[in-house]
Amino acid sequence: MPSTANALNLRPPESAPAAAAPVVEVAGLRKYFPLKKGLLRRTAGYVRAVDDVSFAIARGETLGLVGESGCGKSTVARTLMRLIEPTAGSIKINGQDVTRLGKRALRPHRRQMQIIFQDPFSSLNPRMTAGDIVGEPLKIHGLTQSRARHERVAELFEQVGLRAQQINSFPHQFSGGQRQRICIARALALSPQLIVADEPVSALDVSIQAQVINLMMDLQRQKQLSYLFIAHDLAVVEHISHRVAVMYLGRIVEYADKATLFTDPRHPYTEALLAAVPVPNPRIARKKLLLPGDVPSPVNPPPGCSFHTRCPYAEARCRIERPLLREVAPGHHVACHLR
Ligand code: SF4
Q: Fewest CB within 10 angstroms: 6, 112, 208, 270, which?
């Protein structure tokens, strides 16, 4: 896919890190939300937001997670962070299973994983100064005294490209890009190994997006951070990720290193997503692959392959038998009967 990286003024990406022990391993993760109905609020069904999702992220690696709105990406992020409880499956941080740990036992692991949200304004308390916001995790975890905390906050401000003089300013006094820098500084406060970035640049102007992405990549190089990077902008995902997972209706349907996924997509849904990306060169014609209809409801997903209602290649078997995610080439996994 021709990259829009230059148009966005993005720095060249790092090559993929050598295989290392995973910082996070997710296996068979499921999150079903009960649907309550009637006066007695009886459970009438379940929204299968995340349905059997597995992946691992190595130290210093970025896994991009893409898919249409409502496919379950953000639920994966929140379940992984244990902000919502998983229905089934396991989450391991540095080899330790944290899936069922209680609040107190989870605390030291929480320090290892932090989250950045899409909207940097609503995720910052307007009544707190930027310095207090960044220093809050340090206070909660009782790490430092006030003076030492102030020094650490000033250091974090510098790391994310904010001036120490801005410590006493309030969120409304910052631009959108600066507010996202505050969120990144807060996420870095406890020196985590994993940052879950849920659409971190979607709410920002294109020029500012590049600055934030470049900052995240610099920080990854310096600190060997691992990222789960969730976005619907494939150009950004292509740039920052080492590997990419494509989600459809709560499941991963394709999973590969980014070069493979962007040059040799095998799943029809990935093909359609890539075909929809605008090419910044009018002389390059791209084959359009328009998907009919909408994403089916996760309350009542279609039987067999959940993509069969929109797939141009669907055949009888697809309507009955669910395709498993299988390795079609080294490191390249696809859930499709025909690929
Ligand atoms: Fe399309 Fe069938 Fe493959 Fe599903 S299994 S993506 S319906 S060809």
A: 6
Taking the centre of ligand 1 as the mean of its atom positions, its distance from the CA of residue 165, in whole angstroms, is 56
Residues 275-301 have pLDDT tens digits of 877 666 666 566 666 777 778 888 888
Q: Is the pLDDT of residue 73 over 60?
A: yes
| Residue 62 burial (CB count, 10 A) | 28
Residues 205, 214: Cα–Cα separation, whole Å: 14
Q: What is the distance in A from the centroid of ligand 1 to the CA of 48?
A: 20
In order of start, what are the domains of the chain with their CATH numbers?
A: 4-11+19-99+228-334 (3.40.50.300)
Q: What is the pLDDT of residue 110?
A: 87
Average the pLDDT over 100-126 and give the result: 87
- Say what angle helices 146-159 and 176-188 make with each other, to 10 degrees: 130
Atom of ligand 1 at shortest distance to CA of 306? 4
Nearest protein CA to atom 7 of ligand 1, as residue: 308
Q: How far apart are CA 317 and CA 147, in angstroms?
A: 66
229 Cβ neighbours under 8 A, 6+ residues apart: 62, 63, 64, 65, 197, 200, 237, 240, 241
- The pLDDT tens digits for 33-55 are 999 888 778 888 899 999 999 99
In testing the pocket of ligand 1, which one of 308, 320, 339 has its CB within 8 Å of the most ligand atoms?
308
User: Which residues have C-beta atoms less than 6 Å from ligand 1?
Assistant: 267-268, 305, 307-308, 311, 313-314, 318, 323, 336-338
| 20 has a pLDDT exceeding 70 | no
Give Dmax over CA atoms of the chain in angstroms: 68
CA dist., res. 98 & res. 284, Å (int): 48
> How many other C-beta atoms are found inside a 10 Å radius of the C-beta of residue 69?
9
